[in-house]
Amino acid sequence: MQAYQAGQGTSFPGMQNTAAYYQQNQFMAAYSMPTEAIKMGKNPVNAQAMSSSALYPGYPATADFQAQARGYTYGAAGFPGTTATTSATGFNSTQQGLDYTGYAAGAYPQTGYPYYPGYPSYMPTADTASTAIPSTQTYKLIEPPVTTVSVSDTVTAAYSNPNRLPTSPSPPIKTENGKGKKGTKRGRQCVPSPGPENDLERVFIWDLDETIIIFHSLLTGTYANRYGKDPPQTVSLGLRMEELIFNLADTHLFFNDLEECDQVHIDDVSSDDNGQDLSNYNFQTDGFHAAATNANLCLATGVRGGVDWMRKLAFRYRRIKEMYNTYRNNVGGLLGVPKRDQWLQLRSEIESITDSWLTLALKSLSIISSRSNCVNVLVTTTQLVPALAKVVLYGLGGAFNIENIYSATKIGKESCFERIVSRFGRKCTYVVVGDGRDEETGARQMNWPFWRVSNHSDLAALHHALDLGYL
User: Fold this and answer.
1) In Å, how far are 196, 202, 424 from 373, measured between CA atoms?
2) 199 an active-site residue?
3) Reduced to 3 states, what is the DSSP secondary structure of residue 33?
4) Which of 353, 345, 453 shows the shortest CA–CA distance to 393?
């Protein structure tokens, strides 16, 4: 190999074929380096060169190492688009003072990389694109006994500014329309909950009876005994409200048909719905109730029936959903004028005898509903259809979407909590509000905080905490 003098612009046209390079191996015998000198632990040049190759996958590690170890700077002839190659100092065997007898002829095969058998040789052509490592530093050959090439600054700069890293020489991934597809987070994101629910941060899970409304304790007289009210009066109010609830459920929500076919959630049978227009559909004559009664198709463990019967069941739950969304904030329009007046009078009497219990609960529900990152969810032991009737008759339709109402009659509250987690995701914070042992036990099993409501003071404290932003 000829000697290179300092200041001369000797180039390497097109990185000539590796076969031609190995044919000159008879000259390489004079430049043999001892094998122990090329170990990674003894020569800092090799370690840095190899780390640089690992940093930028796609560049030939062997060629990179050989060039940097000899102090070369790639130029226009070496790689297209760069400046001419120069050598800072003269390069000859006397100055180098190293023995290269280890690189004898035939030491490496003429194809493939010696340390990576099976890979084809890298033979750049004229149209091969490359990207230069962004650096203005000139690498110079240092006199023996120590040969040092400082690439740590370049590596540090590359890590500190990721935008300066050279792009991969591989072509972009092709899509069906022929456009390149960049790696984005869109393909790696997991959406644990549908629609806008993925922005939620806090989910409040409420019990219904004796937490938001006073109903069961009115019927049993427990509320009257605890707070010194007139027991016959409270029982009478409870019975009147119970009659109104079941009348609404039977008349408008198909409770006569669905009492033995209760569901946990309004959309549990939606997969059986074929989307048929129900504007002129006659629910009274479709034969659903007769088939369910005679064939005993509804069992305690779930629904059993043919495809046609399941479709009719799905039609009823779809109509219930439509009715709820239409009259959730205007139940008086659903009841009609006479019953509407009775309902308003009954609501006023119950609110008076319970010392505005519902009003206190509605204050907390309203604060949560006003937050874009929070949601109210209802889990009750009442069957789903009567529970929906309770919600609209007590004026809670604005606080609970029908999709956020669950009935724990068949599966229990802990199972309902698991369904809620699978819907909203585990990144949300869950807070359970209730008065009973079931919700408290379920919250403990899920490792969720539990806010007990036993009296008016508990509701007032909850509103205060929400108003100040503590919850």
Assistant:
1) 10, 7, 12
2) no
3) coil
4) 345
Exposure of 450 by Cβ count < 10 A (0-12 exposed, 13-18 middle, 19+ buried)? middle
Neighbours of 151 (CB within 10 A): 22
Residue 465 dihedral angles phi and psi, to the nearest 5°: -65, -40
Please state, in angstroms and rounded to a whole number, the distance separating the CA atoms of residues 218 and 207.
Answer: 17
| C-alpha count within 13 angstroms, C-beta hemisphere, residue 104 | 4
207 noted as active-site residue: yes
d(CA 317, CA 419): 19
- Over residues 344-393, the pLDDT tens digits come to 999 999 999 999 999 999 999 999 999 999 999 999 999 999 999 999 99
* Active-site residue identified among 64, 209, 257, 272: 209
Residue 193 and residue 355: Cα distance in Å, rounded? 39
- Where does 328-454 have alpha helices with state H? 331-335, 337-353, 357-370, 384-393, 413-424, 437-445
Contact assessment for residue 358 and residue 351, using Cβ atoms and an 8 Å cutoff? yes
Give CA–CA dist 221/198, Å, rounded. Answer: 44
> Counting beta carbons within 10 angstroms of the beta carbon of residue 304, is it exposed (0 to 12), middle (13 to 18) or buried (19 or more)?
middle
- Cα–Cα distance for residue pair 385/405, rounded to 1 Å: 10
Ranking 84-98, 322-336, 447-461 by mean pLDDT, the lowest is 84-98
| Catalytic one of 64, 127, 153, 207 | 207
Strands 302-303 and 180-181: unpaired
Residue 456 Cα distances to 16, 287, 332, 352, 435, angstroms = 89, 48, 28, 13, 12
Contact of 303 with 269, CB cutoff 8 Å: yes
Amino acid in the structure at residue 440:
E
**pLDDT above 80: residue 75:** no
Q: Report the distance separating Cα 2 and Cα 417, nearest Å.
A: 80
**Closest to 442 in 3D by CA, of 416, 404, 471:** 416
Cβ neighbourhood burial of 39 (10 Å; 0-12, 13-18, 19+): exposed
* Dist CA 38 CA 142 (whole Å): 17
CA distance 241 to 254: 19
Report the range of poorest mean pLDDT among 100-104, 158-162, 420-424, 454-458.
158-162
pLDDT category at 99 given cuts 50, 70, 90 is low
